[in-house]
Amino acid sequence: MSTLLSVRDLRVGFGRDPKANEVVRGVSFDLDRGQTLAIVGESGSGKSVTALSINRLVDFGGGMVTGGSILLTREDGSVLDVAKAKEKTLRHIRGSEVGMIFQEPMTSLNPVHTIGAQIEEAFKLNRGLVGAAAKQAALDVLDRVRIPDARTRLGYYPHQLSGGMRQRVMIAMALASAPRLLIADEPTTALDVTVQAQIMALLAELRAETDMAMIFITHDIGLVAGIADRIMVMQQGVAVEQNDTGAVLDHPQHDYTRHLLQAVPHFTAGQSVRDDGARTETRQPVVAVDDLVVRFAVGKGLFKPKSAVHAVDGVSFELMPGETLAIVGESGSGKSTTAKALLGLVSRQRGEIATAAGRSKRPIQMVFQDPFASLNPRLNVEALLAEPAIAKGQKLDDTLRKRMAFLLERVGLPQDALVRFPHQFSGGQRQRLCIARALMLNPDVVVLDEAVSALDVSVQAKVLDLLVDLQREFGLAYLFISHDMAVVERIAHRIAVMYAGQVVEIGDARAVLSDPQHSYTKRLISAVPAVERRKQHFAVDVTQVPSLVRPAGYEPPPAAWRDAGADHRVRLEDGR
């Protein structure tokens, strides 16, 4: 193999005096053609800044390469020092030679253009395709990243897609240019394990076909174990350890590397499920959902819509006091829509949602995935915590302030946090604030929608421990929505598996994870990446996700179920 990229003593700084404010300090590495380098580390370690410096996109974020060299061997064999290259030259290598997949797709997609138009633009700029050829190429690449109803989705706008689907669109756009080097910055964070496996299989396939090299930035060391040739561990802007994947995972030399490996939640196929006696013996559910149906009209007819998206179709479950029910499934399966219907954030066509007479007039509260987007940046913590209580009619008095102080102490934040603003906290601290705010009204149920997926593994572990402690102390019931099966295993008592808008398997967490019955549940569990699955081979799954778009007036046939255990039910497939 020949060297494609050689980075030596890279230094990157920000602000008016970049050399005095360096966030990347002396990083060096080599990358060969067809090789994958994983850069791992917690938030603020400098891994994303390092990657953004490779094609000098860091310049647009207020950063500057203050030292070192970035030698890129171009397609014609010439060597370019990206650190010293002019902007005109950089425009020719971005996209065509060095592709980029960003972590947050909503900030990368244009909200006023359809995704079809944006993907077609990528093919036009990088391959010169126009008209029908560009549209067909866009359709093909959407199929490759496993977006259902690809032809219909071409006409969608970004806000009409789930987070996971938006990320797949970003990956499709990056692949449109067939780059020689692909930089992927947390590209699978928002994806469920089955789609994640498909994306990893697709990237592996492209690497084999084109000899494409990859720089893969992630905090998921389990995923790294399956795809990386080498690992570079970063802490506070410095590469503290760098070696072949096996050597780093089996014989870590640096204390920080050992810390990261210990914090990773290990998936054990149900062997680590909670058995803490937290669930109450009462059979009176705190929430009971029966035959929930949520549909969204699409298309325009003369007097009524031509069709509808069956986002949630006949979902039923019960949630007991002190219990955690995890809802798992791939992006677009209806997990978040179910949660929103529970809170009245989306309208339901039919179905019953019954809540028990509990201790609160607002028995259900929610913690969202992105804590920064959930907190008003103009309000300090005191105002943010008081907001739900004031909306309920309470006054900002000593009693309310005592409640704030008590909850801040319980979530592990100092009392002086009350006068600070959201931007003055880390991501994990902001999520703790969101949890404290959700508890202000003393709810019976807390809905956690991907509440830990954006957190570093060590912070994630602390937040999960906090959630378990709060559940024991306050008797809370959690509806925990996640695509991370290792996290689900750690916190859930029961699991409901959703697929194409329907629950296909539900029951005791240990039973579902150790003895999955539905074919989709089996695929879901087999796709979970883990450090233990070192030799895991990602294979392209040709199984098509059923279309959720149905003609107006269509009603699915009634579901048939069978018992697979004492607390384990599975939906029959094709009458079986």
TrEMBL record:
It is a peripheral membrane protein. It is found in: Cell inner membrane. InterPro entries: AAA+_ATPase, ABC_Ni/Peptide_Import, ABC_transporter-like_ATP-bd, ABC_transporter-like_CS, Oligopep_ABC_C, P-loop_NTPase. GO terms for cellular component: plasma membrane. GO terms for biological process: peptide transport; transmembrane transport. GO terms for molecular function: ATP binding; ATP hydrolysis activity. Pfam families: ABC_tran, oligo_HPY. Residues 7-261, 287-525 form the ABC transporter domain. Its EC number is 3.6.3.-. The keyword Cell inner membrane does not apply. The keyword Membrane applies. It is an enzyme of class 3 (hydrolase). Keywords: ATP-binding, Cell membrane, Hydrolase, Membrane, Nucleotide-binding, Transport. NCBIfam families: PRK11308.1 (NF008453). Belongs to the ABC transporter superfamily. This is Glutathione import ATP-binding protein GsiA.
